[in-house]
Amino acid sequence: QQQVKQSPQSLIVQKGGISIINCAYENTAFDYFPWYQQFPGKGPALLIAIRPDVSEKKEGRFTISFNKSAKQFSLHIMDSQPGDSATYFCAARDYNTDKLIFGTGTRLQVFP
Amino acid sequence: GAVVSQHPSWVICKSGTSVKIECRSLDFQATTMFWYRQFPKQSLMLMATSNEGSKATYEQGVEKDKFLINHASLTLSTLTVTSAHPEDSSFYICSASMDSGANVLTFGAGSRLTVL
Predict the structure, then answer these.
(1) Do B46 and A99 touch (CB under 8 A)?
(2) pLDDT band at A48 (very low <50, low <70, confident <90, very high)
(3) N or C: fewer beta carbons within 10 Å in chain B?
(4) Residues 6+ apart with CB under 8 A from B60
(5) Which chain A residues are Cβ-neighbours of B34 within 8 angstroms?
(6) What secondary structure does DSSP assign to A56-101, as a single string?
(7) Out of B46, B106, B109, closest to residue A42 by CB
(8) pLDDT tens digits for A6-32?
């Protein structure tokens, strides 16, 4: 009930390509869905976030698509760059407990 | 933007000693701070939630006597790993929120603890 399932575990994309990471959840109490980017040895940094009343949010090269009925959301990175190589975590906030639950992470490698 | 500073960024200690990790919100007052633990190539696991002026709430399976959390002011929370053992070696990350929950979290850079 509390899990956020994330896939794929790792992703290799060529420079200029589109990186797509998917997440799914079951808990209907989740009301806020952020994506975090983490470089090795660093803390996660908020990349982009969405609320369930919106189906898509775009910020620069990053887009979140949200399907409330399917309880799925995804991150699309357009024109992927080597500097995007990092681990990406989706997350979901439970409004009952006020806690942020993280997905298992996706290690993205973008090759030139 | 909101900045969370964590110190030390890495620490090595002997088994049986205690280690304190500080988490400071530099440009905002953090009503709530969260402590996470992350093993290599794994996700972040919430350890505890601390609210200023009250006792921390620990997640199931986290020993509160082992991981002491103090949130004495709106800008500082500390995590003390008491009587550390090698299995406590991990990456500890704090995060802070300006509101009372996990709405918009800013994370610190993390503290890598190695217990010999």
Answers:
(1) yes
(2) very high
(3) N
(4) none
(5) 99-100
(6) EEEETTEEEEEETTTTEEEEEESS--GGG-EEEEEEEEETTTTEEE
(7) B109
(8) 999 999 999 999 999 999 999 999 999
